[in-house]
Amino acid sequence: MVPATPDATPAGQPGTDLPAPTTAGQVSGPQGKDLPPTVSDLPTDASSLPESAPGASPAATAGAVPVDPARITFIMVGCQRCGTTWVDAALREHPQVYLPPQKQTYYFDRHLDRGDAWYLGQFAGATDRHRAVGEVATGYSLPHAVPHLARLLPHVRILMAVRHPVERLYSNYQVRKQESGWRSLEDAIARDPDLIERGRYMDQIDDLLRFYPRDRLCILFQEDLDRDDRAYLRQILSFIGVAPDLESSQFGKQRNSAMFPRLRRVMQGLGLRPVLRRLSRSVVGESIRTAKKRWIGRGYAPMKPGTRAHLIEVFRDGNRRLAAFTGRDLSHWDR
Predict the structure, then answer these.
(1) Whose CB has fewer CB within 10 Å in the chain, the N or C terminal residue?
(2) DSSP state at residue 23
(3) In angstroms, rounded to a whole number, what is the distance separating the alpha carbons of residues 210 and 46?
(4) Residues facing 26 on adjacent strands
(5) How many structural domains does the chain have?
(6) Can you give the residue range of the structural domain that contains 192?
């Protein structure tokens, strides 16, 4: 994990302009090396962005009192299929942590039209006992979302979970293939660039570093969660500034094992997310996930060797850059 510096100076305060990047077009990386930005058309000052897209409905914030943006202290920006659901569930058990009632508001990546007041209203339930207030998301590290995140929340601590990019892509493909109508993995890759882009972790980190200092960014590896979930959660809790010792009911539970993804989407569309959440976190939900993995190996057909070899090459340079950035041996990601 990228170490945190508790006394780091925030990147800015809500309502103020953000500084320009460290140097024109570059950010400072480890050992003083410069890391080139990857999205040249992003603004370098997030304060130049509009507060929200036009047409936001005032009714969207009815019944919720928006909090001061400074009340929000951390955001987990991604990545998709990297154990974020497990983290969300574990954090909800900590008495000093507050998360919005539902996992993912999708504000910065999908719902800017709802307006900042709507988003800030999602945190209205936070009280004085909550030392850490934030959100666990999967798409806030994407290039179109980062500047909007930095405009409203330039001061927060950022967490980003990653995993072997080929495995992440294949897992994402499996849970989306029915609704997307993909005929095969190869068809999906050809039709949806998002599958590959979400695994270009260093590109996303470069974008984040345009607005946030290095010591406000924590990179987490899902393999650490799989190896020692207690230590993994302890690192997260320490980084966001709450008591690090928590006896979570999530310890030992399955990660990234979606329970009936099509049923989940239907129930969410009908407004039955709370019912689904209780079922998912119950003994029944855990039993279904465990049995699903044991009986059908998560339902994943083997990836074609040629396709895997191609994807390994696609991600090789990004893996090398991430290894240099984090000081971590990622050579096994090239296999």
Answers:
(1) C
(2) B
(3) 10
(4) 23
(5) 1
(6) 27-255
